[in-house]
User: Which sequence fits this backbone?
């Protein structure tokens, strides 16, 4: 699937703005591969972004979809109260904590109609008919997994490759089931441990993700058997990324820790620690997308006020080592660093 790449680096799907057609085209043009993040987009806007990507590049690209879960039966009232206090700081009303399916079936129709060459799924397994329809048109199916059990399920569901996400990763964890009693949603593995364990249960091609920001990191996961490295945070400050400006500023200052929280969306996700994460993470229930809908107006108002303290600043653990600049330069730097790292390691072995 990625054999034709000049350099097996993938710009990870990043919903909520960062993944733009321009970023996909720039990374592809530099010899890598890019994904559009379709999560939280309407089917119409997704179709527009696919069309725009095709205007900018003739190369294949991918689209990523959020697989919907089930409505939460958790008691949300405490979190609603705490979020109401946050909302009042910005003089907005909190959103309504409703469940929705993110228009998943309609977006599957879009990627099938548009014959998107690679479609990846996170938060769960695609339906059997989704896999069948995509395979019928020659598209490849990728499923994000975080542990061997999920890898086995994804293989059974017909995945052509797996995106193996380590706990270092920025953004939402791709876990199929969120254990509400665990702050991270269940047992978590670093990317090298996840690769090792998942290689033990499947021969599917593995794409490694989580904390990879330097060429040496890319070389490390390729040496560990991945077919490609998928980087999100490394591209968040790229010129072509659509990352919210307040988040770009926060990422440029290496003085925050990252942590995993349910406070913004109800689903474990890694981001820069801010006030909402510090104050609301401990009691945040497992309820995605209910809490995401609840916090939406607050996050938007904080962004408008240029205040990072109530925004979801999704980023991986190594964010401080990521750089700004044109995406093509970031890819070229990664390639040079990867080659140097391999030479260095070869001398030691
Ligand atoms: C801002 C942001 C948004 C993300 N959105 C998505 C998404 O829409 N779909 C998805 O599968 N993964 C998403 N991820 C996770 C990435 O696919 C990937 O696992 C992660 O970026 C890898 O870790 P890194 O950020 O340290 O490179 C997102 C990550 C970030 C940082």
Assistant:
């Amino acid at each position: 699937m990625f054999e034709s790449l000049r350099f097996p680096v993938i710009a990870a799907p990043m919903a909520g703005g960062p993944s733009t057609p321009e970023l996909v085209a720039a990374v592809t043009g530099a010899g890598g591969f890019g994904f559009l993040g379709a999560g939280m987009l309407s089917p119409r806007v997704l179709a527009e972004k696919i069309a725009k990507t095709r205007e900018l590049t003739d190369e294949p690209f991918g689209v990523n979809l959020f697989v919907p879960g089930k409505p939460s039966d958790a008691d949300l009232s405490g979190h609603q109260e705490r979020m109401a206090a946050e909302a009042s700081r910005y003089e907005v009303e909190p959103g309504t904590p409703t469940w929705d399916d993110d228009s998943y079936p309609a977006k599957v129709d879009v990627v099938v109609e548009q014959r998107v060459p690679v479609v990846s799924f996170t938060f769960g397994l695609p339906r059997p008919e989704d896999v069948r329809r995509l395979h019928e048109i020659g598209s490849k199916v990728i499923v994000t997994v975080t542990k061997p059990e999920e890898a086995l399920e994804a293989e059974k569901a017909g995945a052509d490759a797996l995106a193996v996400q380590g706990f270092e990763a920025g953004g939402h964890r791709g876990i199929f089931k969120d254990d509400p009693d665990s702050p991270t949603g269940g047992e978590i593995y670093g990317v090298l441990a996840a690769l090792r364990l998942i290689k033990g249960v499947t021969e599917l091609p593995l794409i490694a993700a989580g904390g990879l920001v330097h060429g040496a990191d890319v070389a490390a996961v390729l040496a560990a058997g991945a077919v490609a490295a998928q980087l999100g945070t490394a591209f968040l400050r790229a010129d072509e990324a659509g990352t919210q400006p307040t988040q770009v500023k926060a990422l440029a200052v290496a003085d925050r820790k990252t942590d995993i929280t349910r406070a913004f969306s109800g689903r474990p996700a890694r981001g820069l620690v801010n006030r909402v994460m510090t104050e609301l993470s401990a009691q945040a229930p497992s309820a995605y997308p209910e809490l995401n809908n609840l916090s939406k107006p607050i996050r938007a108002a904080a962004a408008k006020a240029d205040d990072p303290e109530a925004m979801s600043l999704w980023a991986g653990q190594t964010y401080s080592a990521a750089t700004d600049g044109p995406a093509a330069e970031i890819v070229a730097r990664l390639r040079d660093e990867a080659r140097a790292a391999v030479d260095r390691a070869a001398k030691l072995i």
Notes: The mean pLDDT is 97.
